[in-house]
Recover the amino acids of this structure.
């Protein structure tokens, strides 16, 4: 939870003068998200979200992200839609940072994801994958195998400070996963970070997806593997196969998966667990004094990684 | 900025069942306030604020605060109004904490208070003082002279770690201020914490006052002295007499001040500076590892204290 950049009422007023969305009636920093500063912005024309992009987002990637959100929204995916200024631009500068206003989505994200959330999640993910197929811009996944190798290089030396033996386990894991990593699964735009706080529901109905700032081109099934990790483990890190089955079955009804995709799921889930383990470990080892966000404990993802590693096939996910 | 308590969608739904305000459409933690957890709660009947009272607020004081907000709202002061549940109660429990829903106020607080804000501020403060005169409940100001003595006792030993010589300066200051502190100025309900982030404006018009969780019975002129400190210094801690004059004159038009009140202003402002210096110093010396809120630097209030101490009378505030 964080708002890194304080925006004055004066600067806001000046910023809004470039838009046709009315004048600010309320403006409150939102205590969610760790990458950017998000504000709830109510104008006399309705609610919006104002985002200031902080240092973790590469400014060069912003046209990709904002263009994607517009593209998906145009194909019926409910997601934040960038609002154009009077000059037609969606990306401008506020308080020295790139900034954009997007539409406001109703709904509440589930703090404790339940089976009832997982079917609608799988369906929405598949629809997003299909809607993204004709998005004409590419962005490589900087947090895939090559990125993991870079992260391991930066964390290896102190990994054992976090957990004895972790450095060796990570090395072996990365070697194996890299050697086995597929190269011929169906690709497209993936969300790559579809955790429960990025999915809104209202009365049991999924009402929207947010936070596309890790979106990139990669295997579509890898997105499903990210969701297996993010949604299907209980707080004690036991795996809930009911959730996984509901999610995967709903996904397959919208976008049928090949046998190769299904067979690859344990490996993709292992890679995804490794990805979140490495970034969490990096953040844990590089804590900044006085930082506003407490890093997440990497331990959870050590356990998830081991779970997927020990599977013989996708049957454990309820895949028939 | 902080949300200390995460409220699940399930717990929220259960909580809202006791109210007649519709179902949640959006629910977002607000990155403002350091004492409590505040959520923006949009239901199909409109926007509200949900507050969970964290450990710094004494539960026994909550009926005083919530009753005061209702009392003031009933007398035309725009402030958050507690919303009754179906049982008529405004205070209940959520996630193990006392919690209340209040009305949502429009407006934006000024990050850089300008002279244009100060007249409306003085007027609103005086109106609030008058509206509070017949509030039938009392609450002593726990952060007046006796409270300062307790705070000094807890900070004296390490005050010099923060700034050499500070312990002695604080002792002398508290001795003098205690000896001179008046006992016969007009009293009533004061806000006691009316900083810029607690006052909303819309298009130059003051639209409301929030955060009454330090409100208490004390000298009405002491509230004006708090505002002198909170609103009339520039970021470099130079005093802006134009702001002070606008504020005090607007106040006096609504609630005329006695000569004794005006003469006491430098002493009251000195006491108020001492109060914020002591609480900030206490927080600074008692920082908690991993805390979500960075304590405010006490230095600003050392300078403010010295400014008021050196004045010969209220003329420096533009008082004629």
């Amino acid at each position: 939870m964080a708002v890194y950049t304080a925006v004055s009422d004066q600067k806001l007023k000046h910023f809004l003068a470039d838009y046709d969305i009315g004048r600010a009636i309320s403006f409150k920093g939102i205590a969610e998200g760790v990458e950017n500063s998000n504000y709830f912005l109510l104008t006399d024309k309705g609610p919006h979200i104002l985002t200031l992009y902080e240092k973790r987002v590469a400014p060069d990637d912003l046209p990709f992200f904002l263009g994607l959100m517009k593209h998906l929204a145009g194909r019926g995916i409910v997601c934040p839609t960038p609002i154009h200024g009077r000059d037609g631009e969606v990306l401008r500068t506020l308080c020295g940072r790139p900034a954009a206003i997007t539409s406001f989505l109703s709904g509440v994200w589930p703090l404790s994801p339940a089976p009832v959330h997982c079917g609608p999640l799988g369906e929405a993910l598949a629809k997003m994958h299909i809607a993204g197929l004709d998005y004409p811009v590419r962005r490589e996944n900087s947090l895939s195998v090559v990125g993991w190798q870079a992260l391991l290089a930066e964390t290896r030396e102190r990994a054992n400070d976090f957990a004895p033996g972790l450095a060796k386990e990570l090395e072996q894991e990365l070697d194996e996963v890299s050697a086995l990593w597929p190269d011929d699964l169906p690709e497209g735009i993936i969300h790559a970070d579809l955790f429960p706080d990025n999915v809104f529901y209202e009365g049991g109905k999924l009402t929207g997806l947010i936070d596309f700032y890790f979106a990139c081109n990669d295997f579509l099934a890898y997105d499903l593997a990210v969701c297996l990790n993010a949604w299907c483990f209980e707080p004690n890190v036991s795996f809930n196969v009911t959730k996984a089955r509901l999610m995967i079955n709903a996904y397959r009804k919208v976008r049928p998966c090949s046998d190769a995709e299904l067979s690859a799921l344990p490996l993709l889930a292992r890679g995804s667990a490794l990805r979140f383990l490495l970034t969490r470990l990096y953040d844990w080892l590089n804590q900044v004094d006085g930082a506003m966000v407490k890093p997440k404990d990497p331990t959870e993802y050590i356990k998830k990684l081991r779970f997927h590693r020990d599977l013989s096939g996708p049957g454990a996910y309820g895949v028939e």
